[in-house]
Amino acid sequence: MTWIDDPEFAADRPFGPQTLPYGVVDGGEGPMVAVRVGDHALPLRSVESALGDELAPVLWAGSLDPLLAAGQAVWTALRDRLQDLVTVSVAPRGATLLPLAGLRPVLAFTVGDYVDFYSSRHHAENVGRMMRPGADPLLPNWTHLPVGYHGRSGTVVVSGTDIVRPDGQRRGPDGPQFGPTERLDVEAEVGFVCGGPPARRVPVGAAAEHIFGVALVNDWSARDIQGWEYQPLGPFLGKSFATSIAAWITPLDAFASARIPVVEPDHPRLDYLVEDKPWGLDLSLAIEWNGTVVSRPRFADMSYSCAQQLAHMTVNGATVRPGDLFASGTVSGPEKEQRGCFLELSWAGREPVTLAGGVQRTFLEDGDTVSITATAPGPDGSLVGLAEVAGTVVPVQEP
Ligand code: CA
Fold this sequence. Notes:
5-stranded mixed beta sheet; Fumarylacetoacetate hydrolase, domain 2; binds calcium ion; 2 domains; 8 helices
């Protein structure tokens, strides 16, 4: 029997001892690095005596930055010690449990470079059919490389942050128009938080040395702005206004039982993208729109793995550094109820989505809240959770 008295801290719950995600919380005395146990946060500084003095710079920091930089050996050692510490029957000296309800989540790390991929074939084909009707839904490069673009790291915000409806330029019947987006959308994605020593040309087999953990991401998208601006250089202002990331980052080590083969490519790939046993993650996502689950995408349907994405991102000599973030791209499956954005769910606004009480929606209205969660199989039949990423849309604000 563990000293942690919380019914959510159980093997069959997402945030039991098998998960132990890291985050940063503020209870009024400044940001503190913590590990999540059920519906409580355990500030790491409160168990310093049990974890060891040599970890002090990591435990007393106001962000995960020192932990990300510390590298894989420290990540594994700290997780091992924490798993021992949270499963013993007597509370370690000084240990403090804080209910999550009384804490403000803080963006857990300084986001360096942010790259967003486009690795769901189902999403890419659906968008291709809508945007380029009559043409091949996939562009020729898609089957050969994980297509991506550089996003805006400065507007990555922690879950719970309000999303201000962006203004922008869009196509009108008589030329471009300016105003608040009328097609505000979400993209349910899985984000990978990088750490370890800066590196170039990371081989597909070395991804685990450079990926600290996994966190859900919502790539908010203004489809009308995007549709007018995106050719030929890709997304820009239609996405750079906000990207939400979960407050808690689940260590990659927690997903050992969730590794599954990646979808077989239908074309041979170049050597730098080929791995002996490429692995994806068996994550089941759920998207809630004002409390109604509108989609359940499966990450198993993605066509490129995080290792292939990282290898591609660095193959030209570009450096990956601690704090870099890359996201999978919208997670969509073959079925309608597995689509990871409202553009696809409403088929460009032509097929409204019905929410609780019969309310119908195509794109987001002011006041709407979207929350994305996910779970994966853990060891011995347990459940590993990814913390929710949520946000509420608020009206355009005058400058
Ligand atoms: Ca995206």
